[in-house]
Amino acid sequence: GYPGTVTAKTVYTLTRDNELRVDMEATTDRPTLVNLAHHSYWNLGGYASGTILDHELTLYADQYTPGAPMVPTGETRPVKGTAFDFTSAKPIGRDLRQTGLTPAGYDHNFVVSGDANQLRPVARLKDPRSGRVMTVSADQPGVQFYTGNFLDGTLTGKGATYVQHAALCLETQKFPNAINVPSWRDQVILRPGQTYRHRMIHAFSTEP
């Protein structure tokens, strides 16, 4: 039901620098809503390694966009002193039951610090058991942090069962519900002659 015919493409690139690059583009023939996101699930512990609750996460975001319960209303709030404060690395499970969601967990949009149109750091994730580290950079204003709250053990793959919090997502994006918030609306409207572009880079390394 959206106006316009959107032509979109995504290019996935593996580099020699241990990076997975995701480049998204879109064009339209009429003004319409476009907000593409990459929704990979990650567990740096690897196959059948349990949950991500011990993974240590840093989000380069001083604010988040609360909603009721998960759809932002246009308000932004500081993360300092709350369960949403990942400005310094902390285990994901530490404050997970203080977010107010049912099932418990995170499913929130964070306001990434810096210029929303420039490639910049978004997140850093470390599995302390394996030493694996993933950093995420992107050129979008927000990132949705989701902790697999609705995984319930009914999904299986290659012999492993995906229990609650078995993996997480870090989805860089425009703000959810931006089309209904006047001060955010221009984020998500694509017009003829414009090209929507969205780059995110996942870089992988190890450390003790």
Span of the ends, CA to CA: 51 Å
Query: What is the global morphology?
Result: globular
Number of helices: 0
Described by its quaternary structure, the protein is: single chain
Main sheet makeup: 7 strands, antiparallel
Q: How would you spell out the order of helices and strands? A: EEEEEEEEEEEEEEEE
Beta-strand content: 35-45%
Give an overview in words:
With 208 residues, the chain is an all-beta fold. 0% of the residues lie in helices and 38% in strands. The protein is built from no helices and 16 strands. The strands form four sheets. A seven-stranded antiparallel β-sheet has the order 1-2-16-10-9-4-7, with no helix packed on it. It has a five-stranded antiparallel β-sheet with strand order 6-5-8-11-14, with no helix packed on it. A two-stranded antiparallel sheet has the order 3-15. Strand 1 and strand 2 form a beta hairpin. It is globular, with a radius of gyration of 17 Å. 27% of the residues are buried. The model has no long low-confidence stretch (mean pLDDT 96).
